[in-house]
Specification:
Order of helices and strands: HHHHHEHHEHEHEHEEHEHHEEHEEH
Largest sheet: 7 strands, mixed
Distance between the termini: 58 Å
Number of strands: 11
Bound molecules: pyridoxal-5'-phosphate
Shape: globular
Number of helices: 15
Strand order of the largest sheet: 1-7-6-5-4-2-3
Length: 472
């Protein structure tokens, strides 16, 4: 493709992109294709000769688009969001055009230094203490793996990295029963072993019970196990419960245990002064992760990972092969040493574009509005006697179920599962579920970039109507 051809296609594509954004609400939110349908429509062999870009674009429209679930549709209320926004998309175009690989400072000093500055901006926006340093990772799962590995190395005096785990003893990691599976994955693949992940019971609000944490640690120490890391969550995936950081942090300090905080979704709410209470006890945190690629309008991938002691992180990951030796080493941040991958994208540019485009006040306005929408929805749900709310509504997630009189718990679970499928199959909205105390629970997340209360009110009308027309 020549640059002249590129210019023509790029303009066409910008029209396509703008049209998509303008019409995203007209697409069925959840793709309705059957498994294998898209696969079977793509040729078995690659083309031998060049094909025009327009034929690719035609196939994108005809083959790919029916298999897309539209996360940017404001009627997307499922999972946690993966929001994008126009300034983020523009920056992503620039990132792809520059095509920089930002493994070390020298491979693009601007990328390394913009990343350093963006992490300072974000750290200050969310209220982490000034000593913290940050790095962009691809996902919260990767950041949590980095945290568990750094905790493992710190507690063993960096011996497992060098010697292997043979003489290290049995390490234990603690998290609540409601913690995201990325913690279990990290413990499993870190060599600590899944059976050494201790799941601490939760209180009635689904937050970790610090007393039970203390008991578990005492019990493990009495058996000569080595408590290594506690993972506290701000905003659990099921119900957005907030683990009590101060109480957990004090237990960690008393016992010399690493405290990692997973705030993948709720971290964005920390930009609001009225949500700073979630960070009470921040002085005890060793590492902290949140995902601008969830709620902060920065398209996937962009995870912000912060550490109190960058030296421990670097010591866990650094290696120095001959081909990566530079004259600037030690005086700059070479982010390849701050996590698993060597190669790195220029993701700081997206954050810079998003934060400058919205401004911190603009971001706060949008996040506040999402939280307000969730509160208004919960008021509507509370008015209906045949629906109930099943967890405290803290940020932008409402957990509820249909509970008509005259049915037993099994029938109610079946009804709600049916309701969820009916709603999603309609293409008009998309909701996902969780199980709370054995109850099939619908989760409605009011945090999509373009969601308004009108979208939620319409969805709520549809949910009520669909539910009341169902039989178990
Ligand atoms: C609380 C929590 N932590 C971690 C993750 C994993 O995030 P990622 O996809 O960035 O690995 C999620 C995903 O939704 C989450 O809800």
């Amino acid at each position: 493709m020549t640059t002249d051809e590129f210019r023509i296609h790029a303009h066409e594509l910008v029209e396509w992109m703008t049209g998509y954004m303008e019409n995203v609400e007209k697409y069925p939110v959840k793709s309705a294709v059957e498994p294998g349908e898209i696969f079977s429509r793509i040729p078995d062999k690659p083309p031998s000769n060049s094909e025009p870009f327009n034929s690719l674009l035609r196939d994108i429209n005809e083959i790919i688009m029916p298999g897309i679930t539209h996360w940017q549709n404001p009627n997307f209320f499922a999972y946690f969001p993966a929001n994008t926004s126009p300034p983020s998309i523009l920056a992503e175009m620039l990132i792809a055009t520059l095509g920089t690989q930002c493994m070390i400072w020298e491979t693009s000093p601007a990328a390394a230094e913009l990343e350093e500055k963006m992490m300072i901006w974000l750290r200050d926006m969310i209220g982490l203490p000034p000593g913290f340093e940050g790095v962009i990772q691809d996902s919260a799962s990767t950041a949590t793996l980095a945290a568990i590995l750094t905790a493992r190395e710190s507690i063993t005096n960096f011996s497992i990295n060098e010697e292997g785990a043979e003489h290290a003893g049995t390490l234990k990691v603690y998290c609540s029963e409601q913690t995201h599976s990325s913690v279990e994955k990290a413990v499993k693949i870190s060599g600590i072993g899944r059976k050494n992940l201790v799941k601490i019971p939760v209180k009635a609000d689904f937050s970790m019970d610090p007393e039970k944490l203390k008991e578990a640690i005492i019990h493990d120490k009495s058996r000569s196990y080595i408590p290594c890391c506690v993972v506290a969550t701000l905003g659990t995936t099921g119900t957005t419960a907030i683990d009590p950081l101060r109480a957990i942090g004090e237990i960690c300090r008393e016992n010399g245990i690493w405290l990692h905080v997973d705030a993948a979704m709720a971290g964005t709410a920390l930009i609001l002064p009225e949500f700073q209470w979630m960070l009470d006890g921040r002085e005890h945190i060793d590492s902290f992760v949140f995902n601008p690629h969830k709620w902060m309008f920065t398209n996937f991938d962009c995870t912000a990972y912060f550490v109190k002691d960058a030296g421990a992180l670097i010591k866990t990951f650094e290696l120095l092969p001959e081909y990566l030796k530079t004259r600037t080493r030690g005086s700059v941040n070479d982010y390849r040493d701050w996590g698993v991958p060597l190669g790195r994208r220029f993701r700081a540019l997206k954050l810079w574009s998003v934060i400058r485009s919205y401004g911190t006040e603009g971001l706060r306005d949008k996040i506040r509005e999402h939280i307000r929408i969730a509160a208004r929805l919960s008021e509507h749900i509370l008015k209906e006697t045949d629906f109930e709310i099943l967890a405290p509504v803290i940020i932008s997630v409402v957990c509820f179920r249909y509970k008509p009189a005259g049915y037993n718990e099994d029938q109610i679970n079946t009804l709600n599962e049916k309701l969820n499928h009916h709603l999603n199959d309609s293409g008009r909205l998309y909701l996902t579920h969780t199980i709370i105390n054995g109850k099939y629970t619908l989760r409605m997340v009011t945090a999509q970039t373009n969601v308004t209360f009108e979208h939620v009110a319409k969805a709520w009308d549809m949910i009520k109507e669909t539910a009341r027309n169902l039989s178990p």
